Every structure is written in structure tokens, then in C-alpha cells.
Amino acid sequence: MSTRWKIGRIYAWLLARLLFGFQVINRPKPVTNQGKILVANHLSNLDPFFVALACGQEVYFMAKEELFNVSRFFRWLITFWNAIPLPRSKVQTTVLKKCLALLKENKTLVIFPEGTRNKSDDILLPFKPGIGYLAINGQVPVIPVAIFGVREVWHGRLAKLIDKDISRYFKTNSKLPKIKNRVIVEFGHPIYPNQYEKSRAGYDQFTQTIRAKLQTMLIKYLAR
Description:
Elements: H1 3-20, E1 23-25, E2 36-40, H2 47-55, E3 60-64, H3 72-80, E4 83-86, H4 93-104, E5 108-111, H5 130-138, E6 142-148, H6 150-155, H7 157-161, E7 184-187, H8 200-222
Parallel strand pairs: 1-7, 2-5, 2-6, 3-4, 3-5
Antiparallel strand pairs: 6-7
């Protein structure tokens, strides 16, 4: 882990505990001799922050291309924290090659395969097939990462802390779980792509396997 990540993580952890009651479940042990992909559900713009903090090691993100055009400062900021621009229309070959190169260098790649924030009543939006392609061609495991409680914190803990009704900025009728007004990140078991073919059908099948596992993790909390 680079020095900037070590220092940034100390301050970020304190901030996350104060503002979001942040909690991590089943954090995987750091592995430096193998690349891996973290696949998470997407509820807010802070999800990359939560996943990176929960992971406990330096990661690389695939971020929508529009974020790099917000401002020069913001482009520098997300690039500094290892964001990779991803065209919304289609995944370019150069992007996939760069991601495969990172995986080959034993880096950790974070992907939000829904492609956009989920503001619906659905537990998960459909997944893009790029995960299957990267995992199978890179022969790396995929770890599903479930994020809970973001919306409840916006309505509860954070609103009370700044003494302001900020719920109007985060309107939703979602049936996603309410987790005692705290943000929780839970890691699932690694899913390996060994048995899947390098074909469109294989990529799709592996992608759906990952989606089903992540959905099961989210449903578990709905049942509480």
C-alpha cells in the first residue's frame, strides 16, 4: 500500500466512524500475490470511498467518464486515487487491456457493475458483462461486496449531526434494508472463474453467478 493510501486511510476511517457509524464484516485478508476484483452494489457517490476503506488496501476503480469532466481539480482528485475512466456507451478495448494489466500486476480492481446508482425499488439493477470478461481472461477471483444503510444514514445520523433536513437530497422509496442508521460493508467469499469458458456465453454466465451471490447477501438483510 502506498504512503498516500496509508495516511489517507487513517483520517478516512475516523471520518467514516463519526459520520456514518462505519462497520466492516468479513474483511478478506490482504493478498499481494494475486489480482482480484471487488464487485459492489451502487447506492451513492460515496460507495468507492466505503469499499476502499473497508478493503484495507490500495485499490483501483472503474469510474464513469463524465466524472473526469466535472472540473480539473476533481479529475486530479479521482485520478490521484486510482480511478480509471470508463465510457458509459461501451467498454473500449484499451480500458479492458489496462484493467487486465493491473490484475496481472496483482492489483485489486473495484467495479460497480450496475453502471449507475440504484435509485429504484429493485435490490440490484442488471449487471454489465465486463466483470465476466475480466475475471475469466485474467483468471482472478471476484469478491462480492454488499453495501448497506447508506440511505438511512442520510435520513438519520448525518442529518442529526449537521442539524439539518438533508433527506430532500436523497429522496427514494426504496425497499433496501435499514441497518440501524449505520453504513455496513460486508465481503462475501471469493468466486473463481476456472470452470467458465472464454466466450460471450461464459462471460454472461459468470456475471450472472456473481450477481446472484450479491443479491443473496442483500436479501439476507431484507429478511431481518
